[in-house]
Structure prediction request, 666 residues.
Amino acid sequence: MALRVLEFKYKADNPVTIAKEWSHLGVVGSGDLEVLMESKDLDGWLTVKVVTPVTGFDKVWDLVLGKFANESQLGNVAMEINDNNATPIVVSMRLRQALAEANKLQTEGE
Amino acid sequence: MDDKSMQREWNTLKMDTQERLKKAAPYAKGKIVSAKDTVALLEAVIKPGDKVNLEGNNQKQADFLAECLCNVDPKKIYDLHMVQSVLSLPSHLDVFEKGIAKKVDFSFSGPQAGRLAEFVKDGKVELGAIHTYLELFGRYFIDLTPRVALIVAFEADEQGNLYTGFNTEDTPVIVEATKFKQGIIIAQVNKVVEKLPRVDIPADWVDFIIPAPKPFYVEPLFTRDPALITDAQVLRAMMAIKGIYAEYGVTRLNHGVGFDTAAIELLLPTYGEELGLKGKICTHFSLNPHPTLIPAIESGWVESIHCFGGELGMEEYVKERSDIFFMGPDGTLRSNRCYSQTAGHYALDMFIGGTLQIDKFGNSSTATANRVAGFGGAPNMGCDAKGRRHSTGAWLKCGQEYGMNEQLIGDLPRGKRLVVQLQETFREKLVPGLVETLDAWKLAKNANLDIPPVMIYADDLTHIVTEEGIAYLHKCGTIEQRMAAIRAIAGYTELGLQADPKETRELRKLGIVKTPEDLGIDISRATRSLLAAKNVKELVEWSHGLYNPPARFRNW
Prediction:
């Protein structure tokens, strides 16, 4: 199936960025997705690029991502989602987990 | 005084049966008929237009007899009225294709549901009605009494006693209804032995025994591989345990067959333990021997389980846990669908399971536009038993919260069964689980049914659990409020997008809707790592090697 690219952007009142420069979570398995986050100077905006085989759910993506943006107040972050038919709840759960992962303190070498 | 009594022969059934048995005598040695004479036997004892029961349910199948019935001569045997629990083997429908049978009354049709819908549409099958198990069993004693029953057992002895053992299931109720109305009982068995482990069906109720060429088929329908449980299912399981099991102190219950309830079973020894619920919930079940319940049993959660049927691979485990399961003097399980459904209807405080679709009023159905799937036993448990008169804590609490109680029965206190549906707002392939209108309406039209097949009606449903929250529907005082509560937990489905945020906030204040946050559940903890067993191999380890999973579930 042809993949489609959707682009969204959100601006928080008091944008907070992520602790890591770059972070990755998830696997593009069936019904799942991967989330990449990159800290970037975007004038306070959160940008989201979604690559998905699904049609007819653009409005739902906007609602799910908008809710996440509003709750997290994320800004100056470029996010990329590679989706393989994940349901809205899976998207929401992975976004939360991705954010937790992106804010983990570097523990390498411990 | 005028003699108004009828002049008639009062024992025609008995005489007819004796005639049939006489015709069959050449094929039998004692009661034993060889496999190759089975078709001839059936042609001797069955007459056109008979009501015939073919044993089989969602577990064991009289598969050899089903095939033999397809091979009788349709010029001799035709217009049969099949009365049977399930239509699940191809032969169950072939018998209609061949013109041997004409009409069917049944309960469940899982794998043949699509073909059945076609047959009904094309007029190849005359559909009597789709029943629940107890309803169909009930009719066996009223207006659907079989003339001949083709049943299945593990073993027989020379006299004709039967051992149905672990998979007793529907056999006793079929035999009782048939034999005691002068009917004929034919049993396929895996083997004939000198001495049975125990007698499940006495010999004088059985007319013929056929040692089948191969052991009867059993479907491991209740085996769920923990490896396939998703994080979203873990989340709903956490919500159900905290927001319903703990909230009402549910001790006596039945779990549906899906992955959602498997997740709950596997969370009892972890999340349930953490919440201090051991001994307070999930002590008594009406349930098949679910492999995913092994960790909870092993950690001391469960006191008693009565089984509808067996489950392939659980034989040895069950045998070694006789305090928990119902057991014969020989030390093997005795399952019994009729009794377990009766227990499920009257003696449980909660039914919880998944479904395919829930409509805006709260009616739920597993029917799709082109599959006549039937009901099985779920509606016998997924309803408020109106004849119940004993009380328990969970039942009373649910009744006290019932928002319609006063409008219906005034100031009298009455309890209410908890009927819970677990539903992901979107199922796989992004098909919505909560909808404006059930597909059951389309099916009713396509298959020419009198009413859309509904698994659980809205007035029986008390709770819906989605990842967005729990709707405590029974607390609602009006259908408008109930519909608003459903919209509030319908997420991003078209139904959910109609929710009014102000109204949702109000329902949360009233405790009619609770989100994971309201329940104090941290969503980021909802991962598979909470499962007490993460795959089938770990279930085997929990069972101390007693659980022996079927080959298709072994990948090590």
Remarks:
- Chain B touches chain A at residues 230-232, 235, 424-430, 467-468, 491-492, 497, 523-524, 526 (CB under 8 Å).
